[in-house]
Amino acid sequence: MATFDPQAQITALREEMNKLRDELATQSAEAYEGVRNRAGSAGRSMRAAVKSGAGYVQSEGRAAADAARAHPAAVSTVVLMAGLAGLLLGYLLASASEPPARSRVSRYWR
Questions:
Q1: What residues form the membrane-spanning segments (predicted)?
Q2: Per the domain annotation, does 22 fall within a domain?
């Protein structure tokens, strides 16, 4: 027969809770270590990619600067055309968005 001693049941439940707490702590520590190791390797690979990407951007920037120094009239023409294209695009966007139509009544009740 099962014992109905409440004190023994409470003690058994506490022991079970302590076992579960210890098991959860162990699993959490293992998961943390795994995530930390993966993050470290991702960080190292990302650092290498950023370094090589930075070198590429620097070389392309130098090439663009050299081309701009060699052809100043072409650069000013490109900048002027980009500005005019921006103005035209802004005008088209502004003219495409019309204010909502007002009824006769709403004009007086504002």
A1: 73-94
A2: yes
